[in-house]
Amino acid sequence: MIDLGINSKLDNKRVTILASLDVEIRKKSRGFISTPVSSVPQLDRQTALATMNGIFEILALQAQTRPFAVGLRLLDDIAPVFRRACPESPGEPVNLPNILLNPDFNLRNFAASDIMISVTTGQPTYLQYEVPFSLDLCERMSQAKSENGLQSIYGIPNEFIMLFAWINWLCEEPGAGQNLGLVSWIEDNLWKIKMADDQSSDPLLRIGRMAVQECWRFAVIVYLYMALCEADSSDPRVIRAQKGYMRLVRGIKPGRYPDAYLINSMIIVGIAIMEERDRDTLRQRMYKVWEWMEPGTTGNDAIMRLEDIWTRTRVERRPAVWTDLRIASRKVLGR
After folding, report:
1. Predicted TM-score (pTM) of this structure
2. Which 3 state secondary structure label does DSSP give 269?
3. What is the helix (H) or strand (E) element at residue 173, kind and residue range?
4. pLDDT tens by residue, 149-186
């Protein structure tokens, strides 16, 4: 694998190597999908999993060095491979909790990436997911976190990934956002989700990780009201959530970590932020993560989406709505 190093740009040799790896895995993925499904389902799933090997290492390098659209093209090809790696019959939704609890890293990572890309771009997910959300299921997620969790990579607990996916699914259900009982139940249960105790011996590290988790909780609330209920950024419920988020962010010492774990939550909550002082705070935090500072990278593309929303709402003198994210994504990503 290519060793980029921190704060380094790709030279011509590394650009060539990364491009070759991208072409190779896309060719491999298309080759697998073009073959008939094996009469032995377990064998077909094992082959699909083997085909996915190395995909997320390449995506991680692309995220640091290439535009987001490049990574999306790779995911376009790997999505049908992921689907064949899942045990559900064709046409059935994939059971998300089973995937997030699966010991295979590639399966968990694809599902989490699929959901969070949808949340932070406004695009639909590649696959349909079955999300039987419950607090008991959250408890199972918490207990399995040390083995299966993606929190150490993305900063977001599996429980919140599952809740984002459920809200995302509800957005397609007519009338769900107007069901006040349902919305109230979601928020009430969101606050009841307990995170696993941090085992770090460093008290400052423990506090920082807890603060990151709580930031994500506020991000879920913003998504709940803006995406599902179609509230705008001037809605009192949205304002309470974004202010709670900003209080936490200002209380966390700036640095690559935890800021790299907060980036996607900053995109979600950033849509709701109307005060320039708060927008500047997020800018300062995001631009201190080097791969987000560099133009032409996945992270910088995300900042550009947020800047587009802030500029349009400022010029048009109106609060932001969730559909502004989809408009910004089309401008920046070209899709």
Report:
1. 0.93
2. helix
3. none
4. 567 777 899 999 999 999 999 999 999 999 999 999 99
SS3 94: strand
Q: Give the whole-angstrom CA distance, residue 187 versus residue 244.
A: 15
Contacts by 191-200, CB closer than 8 A, 24 or more apart = 191/217, 192/135, 193/135, 193/138, 193/159, 193/160, 193/163, 193/217, 194/138, 194/139, 194/142, 195/142, 195/157, 195/159, 196/142, 196/143, 196/145, 196/146
Identify which of 159, 135, 139 has the alpha carbon closest to the alpha carbon of residue 149: 159
Please give the Cα distance from 124 to 117 (Å, whole number).
Answer: 9
Q: How many CA atoms lie within 13 A of 224 on its CB side?
A: 27
Where do we find the tokens 């689907």? 83
Smallest CA-to-CA distance from 129 within 99, 155, 159, 149 is with: 99
Joined together, the tokens standing for residue 279 give 């927008």
Identify the three-state secondary structure at position 95: strand
Cα separations in angstroms, 23 against 10, 27, 30, 70, 76: 17, 6, 11, 11, 13
